[in-house]
Specification:
mainly alpha; AA_transpt_TM; Amino acid/polyamine transporter I; about 450 residues; L-amino acid transmembrane transporter activity
Length: about 450
Amino acid sequence: MPSDKSSLQTMTHHDDHNDNHNVRSALVPTHDDGSEAKCCKCRFPHINLLPHGSMAASGFNLASATLGAGTLAIPQAMAYCGSLVGSLLLVLCCAGTIYSIRLLIIVLEKTGFSTYEEMSHKLVHPIFEKVTAALIIVFCWGITIVYVVAMGDILDPLRQISGFPEALEGTWGRRAIMTIFWALFMLPLSLAKEINTLRYASLIGMASTGFLVAAIVTHTSIDAPPMENLTIARFDVNMIMSMSVFIFAYCCQTNCFEIYAEMTNRSVNKMTLTTAVAMTTCTIIYIIAGIAGAADFGQDTDGNILKNYKNPTETLYIAVAFVAISITLTMAFPICIFPTRDAILQMLGYKDAYSTPSHVRLLCAGVLATTAITVGLFVPGIQILFGVLGGVCGSTLAFIWPALFILRTGEWTRETAGLGNMIATYALLILGTIAGILATATSLYSNFS
């Protein structure tokens, strides 16, 4: 990420009397006095590992929103690209994500616009707001469907256990198990008011993903000849198609405003550092999981690597990994419901979830969660979802829109931002557009040809 010139310091190192005052009027839940953190401390006097609004809590929420079903698809994408090319693409997506979130927060601080929709309306065009809202709704709601389908794949091996009820066998048995799990765990979490409510759940989700990666590495080292399946670089249609998976795997920008709103003593640099730590952690996890999974199964790696483990209940650490990733997806499900809910609430005329009547907010979240499980019950696989969501919605919201917003402020020029920032911004805009078009086209061709 390019360093800012001294002339840009007023845009990022804002003082307490001006920029902080402006953004507080746009972001409802301010906790600079520490009152909310103290309140949480009183409720949980012995469990305060992630204080409300802390950098740790914000980082875990951001990482939890990033990790999820993408972890399951990274090994196949790595197998299609080769370990070197795949790792470089992941690092590039990581850098782009950190910089795009930084741009979004700078726009927020300078304008007071605290949502994608508001930025689209005020900085681009009123019609652009509707397009953006539609993209957010389709993308975030689509991700929840991915999680539901992936959860069905995870729960399937339960039916191999001896003595499992015969009534739950077959296709409708799978759907019944998915519905029960959704009703017990996913739906209740989706009804929470704010992301920070899930900060401990995010910690559990991160730990679970770490265990899954450890299981993949262990299986590779014990049961497979790694070097026989692993390639260094590949350049073909499958490599281009894999870009949509990589883009999808880093899409967390729609959550950054709410996470930033709940951060205590917030600033652009503090959010950038939080994002950098969270995204670097995710990148390390992705590279390890991708290389290990590709080395294990090679070109036979499934779009959901869990489906490569045919009898997971026979190996203890694989069985535990299945349970662990189910926890991760469960925690990520509501975090994707929130921005979808907020986009719909704004289309209905409400400013945000904090000023919306509780019954309206709960009804909106409940309907979104219910439609996600309803559609997810009948979707055969997650590969096509990755292609469309990552290629179309992901590249747009994650890379193209942040660059466009900062350029439309009129305050992001070579004189104020510096040459390095201008190059990085246009690179984000141009490369995001090219990657999105190519990834979407190849994904659709591969799935429907």
